[in-house]
């Protein structure tokens, strides 16, 4: 049976990168994987509904961190999606028989090792299957504190869950992993791309502009959609921030850790300073979530409450803009 070294991480995609690459001899921390993959982001998408209400994202779209990290680190990956369950499970079993751990996309809802309160319809969760014992598959799920297992039927349901984005049995594994990598250029490329996405995308729903866009909408929620839906809209902002994929504040803390690690590797102490500044932004996001939660529980239709939350978001937007403008001027 394949031995797999499992490390618990904060986020599934960057955690799978760290664990899977480490298994093949390329040791990279989760924050470094997240930073090289330019994972930090913000977007508010009123036309993309999550459980019937507008969606927000605090990270780049699923799969992008992995693709960027592989490209910048010179890792060659093989990836497959499947039209049938039989082909998908046969392909998985073939790789496991070869002793190759396999990353895959799944739905959180059908993972029985998750506590029931954490199981919801989110189809972009990443995990590693590294072995099989009878009818159970052995799983390294980055957000769990230890390895676990899943029965065949549950794994099939998780791999072929309906909804967006449909996993379609997606599985992936490295074909070639360099044992030694110069992190300098990947770090620089990751920072440059993150700054561009946070500051320069012309669409108003993304980056720093997107936070201000959300702020403008939040203050008008009670008047435009009514008390009940306003609370649902606000509750989903909190949920997307604090529960799904590490959350807005969590991603800010992770990127801050990346900047501090990068500062040491590149001998650029200003990156350490910017990282500390970004942790303050993370605290601001957590403070916003706490206050928004109180508004939701009160079911307040008072525009002043939503207006104050809007002002908090405007302040956060200013903080993030300062961080990324400063970061964009560092000579790397």
UniProtKB/TrEMBL annotation:
It comes from the Bacteria. InterPro entries: BtrH_N (IPR026935), DUF4872 (IPR032369). Pfam families: BtrH_N (PF14399), DUF4872 (PF16169). Residues 154-327 form the DUF4872 domain. Residues 11-142 form the Butirosin biosynthesis protein H N-terminal domain. This is BtrH N-terminal domain-containing protein. It comes from Chitinophaga pollutisoli. The lineage of its organism: Bacteria, Pseudomonadati, Bacteroidota, Chitinophagia, Chitinophagales.
């Amino acid at each position: 049976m394949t031995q797999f070294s499992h490390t618990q991480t904060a986020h599934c995609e960057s955690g799978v990168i760290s664990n899977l690459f480490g298994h093949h001899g390329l040791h990279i921390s989760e924050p470094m994987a997240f930073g090289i993959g330019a994972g930090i982001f913000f977007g508010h998408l009123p036309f993309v509904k999550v459980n019937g209400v507008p969606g927000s994202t605090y990270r780049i779209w699923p799969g992008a961190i992995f693709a960027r990290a592989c490209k910048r680190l010179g890792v060659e990956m093989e990836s497959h999606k499947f039209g049938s369950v039989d082909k998908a499970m046969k392909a998985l079993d073939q790789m496991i028989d070869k002793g190759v751990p396999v990353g895959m996309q799944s739905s959180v809802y059908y993972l029985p090792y998750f506590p029931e309160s954490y199981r919801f319809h989110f189809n972009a969760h990443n995990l590693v299957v590294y072995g099989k014992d009878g009818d159970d598959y052995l799983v390294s799920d980055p957000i769990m504190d230890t390895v676990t297992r899943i029965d065949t039927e549950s794994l099939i349901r998780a791999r072929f869950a309906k909804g967006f984005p449909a996993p379609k049995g997606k599985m992936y594994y490295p074909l070639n992993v360099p044992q030694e990598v110069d992190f300098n250029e990947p770090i620089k490329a990751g920072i440059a791309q993150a700054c561009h996405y946070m500051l320069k995308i012309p669409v108003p729903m993304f980056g720093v502009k997107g936070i201000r866009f959300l702020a403008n909408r939040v203050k008008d929620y009670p008047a435009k959609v009514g008390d009940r839906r306003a609370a649902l809209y606000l509750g989903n902002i909190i949920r997307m921030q604090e529960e799904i994929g590490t959350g807005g504040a969590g991603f800010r803390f992770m990127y801050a850790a990346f900047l501090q690690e990068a500062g040491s590797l590149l001998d650029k102490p200003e990156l350490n300073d910017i990282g500390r500044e970004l942790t303050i932004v993370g605290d601001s996001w957590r403070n916003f979530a706490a206050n928004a939660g109180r508004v939701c529980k009160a079911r307040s239709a008072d525009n002043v409450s939503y207006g104050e939350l809007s002002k908090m978001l405007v302040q956060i937007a200013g903080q993030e803009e300062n961080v990324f403008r400063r970061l964009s001027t560092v000579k790397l």
